[in-house]
Amino acid sequence: MPPTDRIVASITLRIRYAETDAMGIVHHSNYLRFFEEGRSEYARQRGQPYSSFEAAGYFLVVTEATLRFIKPARYEQQITVTTWVEKSRSRGIDFAYEITDTDSGEILVTGQTKHISIDKSGQVSHIPAMWQGW
Amino acid sequence: MPPTDRIVASITLRIRYAETDAMGIVHHSNYLRFFEEGRSEYARQRGQPYSSFEAAGYFLVVTEATLRFIKPARYEQQITVTTWVEKSRSRGIDFAYEITDTDSGEILVTGQTKHISIDKSGQVSHIPAMWQGW
Amino acid sequence: MPPTDRIVASITLRIRYAETDAMGIVHHSNYLRFFEEGRSEYARQRGQPYSSFEAAGYFLVVTEATLRFIKPARYEQQITVTTWVEKSRSRGIDFAYEITDTDSGEILVTGQTKHISIDKSGQVSHIPAMWQGW
Amino acid sequence: MPPTDRIVASITLRIRYAETDAMGIVHHSNYLRFFEEGRSEYARQRGQPYSSFEAAGYFLVVTEATLRFIKPARYEQQITVTTWVEKSRSRGIDFAYEITDTDSGEILVTGQTKHISIDKSGQVSHIPAMWQGW
Predict the structure, then answer these.
(1) Looking at this predicted complex, what is its ipTM?
(2) Whether this model's pTM surpasses 0.90
(3) Is the dihedral of CA C92, D82, B30, D49 positive or negative?
(4) How large is the average pLDDT for residues D68-83?
(5) Active site residues of D
(6) First CA to last CA across chain D, in angstroms?
(7) pLDDT at B104 exceeding the cut of 80
(8) Residues 6 or more apart whose Cβ sits within 8 Å of residue C54
(9) CA D59 to the chain's CA centroid
(10) Chain B neighbors of D51, CB-CB under 8 A
(11) Pick the catalytic residue: B21, B94, B101, B103?
């Protein structure tokens, strides 16, 4: 469940036909893309969009991901991706996510991703100042 | 590391341009698709392709996934997806994966996925006989 | 350019990181997905979402697609997909699209797709009454 | 039909589950990705992989694409993508494609893509010498 003691960002997406598979439900790989949209929205709401992170010469790469699939989503369904920072480190950030059905609030998928900051040479680096302490 | 006491299936894939992202590397969501290809190959090598599983009226849905991203892959690189069964249950199967650079053998990504068997009505069901005891 | 003598539907999307490729721009295959979202929005605005089309036992399959790529789009850019019906036939529909940069109005991509209606047995069929004369 | 008076490159792919959609068939956007794999294979067979094109400081961007969808493909089906150069220009290349069912030889999808060469600054440029006259 999203924490109440820190910033939590939500974004609503509508499932696209191309995101479904032959089971008639959203292909599970798309949830990593929805998590990424959750991070993008979180950064925008903090006022430092991820594009500014890359513009500053850094990349935030994914080192770990965990997903629990509780209930499938289908074409045209609206889902809400809620994102928060679980842990902020000097060289990385851990995000957590909860995806719910926008109408009913039912939980569909939960997960975490861990990231490290690298510079253009590919070296692990400190998170740029503007992103520290998230 | 792949176990030596059971069947292990390997398949080699070449990274497609469409699988890269603006970081110049494979977008991390694609590894869930490569794991899926690993499972498909495993089932084919066991002689019971996943299409026969669905033809029998069942779906094997993903309930959990874990991924560790160790080293990025790039366009045209050849990767080998090695897949094995970690645990076989009456109503589900747990798979594990190791993705390596085909040339050097270096480990790129490792992971696990957990699955349950459902029937056409969406009810959790026993794994069909031909897939049991994997 | 969108016509002025008929219904035209617009939807705004924000480019996702996963939609970019190693060139740093949106991979061209995604525009077929954006066109599809344009059709979905068009059908919703007409009051007959595509999900109701399938619920009625029909599929609207793509038989032809043409795309002209004029200017690339990048991560976080907002694009507007404008969609209209070019030709309505008894057994099919032709759609046309214009994708612009939401802020500047600059044209990024234009295209057409042709579709036929098939029933569950895979036979070409008349467009269901509620979709006729679009 | 592939021409007989010039180089024609073929590659065989197996349809991935993630490439299907709720219609139970390959989502049409994937054929642009298969065409791209066709081009990649063509370039490899000519001895100048596309990665060497980018390494030389150029990008081959898509300016137009046309697709005709004749017959759907399904999960695990093997398809053969046959690719040839339709027209070689000083600043661009036009490719044509035919995708067939590998077993039966039946035509599934045909298409063309047009490309121009740009340099790192984004300016239209001559095709590098090694790619000229294809």
Answers:
(1) 0.96
(2) yes
(3) negative
(4) 98
(5) 21
(6) 19
(7) yes
(8) D22
(9) 15
(10) 75-76
(11) B21
